[in-house]
Fold this sequence. Notes:
The chain is an alpha/beta fold. It has one domain: Transcription Regulator spoIIAA (2-Layer Sandwich), CATH 3.30.750.24. It contains 4 helices and 5 strands, in the order E-E-H-E-H-E-H-E-H. A 5-stranded mixed beta sheet has the order 1-2-3-4-5, with helices on both faces. Strand 3 (44-55), helix 2 and strand 4 form a beta-alpha-beta unit. The longest helix is centred in the middle third of the chain and has 16 residues, at 57-72. The relative contact order is 0.15.
Amino acid sequence: MTLAVVAGAGPGPAVITVTGDVDVMNAGQLRELLLEQYAAGERHFVLDLSDVTFLDSTGLGVLVATHRRTRNGAGSLRLVVTRKQLLHLLRMTGLHSVFHVYPTLDDAMDAASTDLPEAVGPRIPRQAVSPALRRAPATTAAN
């Protein structure tokens, strides 16, 4: 696995480009890099996974932990995913509905540019919301 970081010189996100396999043997490198960036004050990340050829459960765990950390710290995580195999993995695990996934780096950067610290906060998991507070499906009245 190869990692490249372009830390945001301004208010933009840190862009981390990952290439090759992300597995049990090297996912720790990615985790450490993300933790270092977070400790240095970065809160918004774009992970470019366009050239990731394999991602195992350890790699997925790093992504989930980063998502939680950034969400709870008023930050954001956006993924660039172009390979069908990786998109399929995210769908199979249900993580496609957790992560913000984009087909290009430009799309992810455009979306990340709308992230304002005061507008991004922790999300309440759906299961934590009382059923009484969930919106009922809209019904249409017959005339």
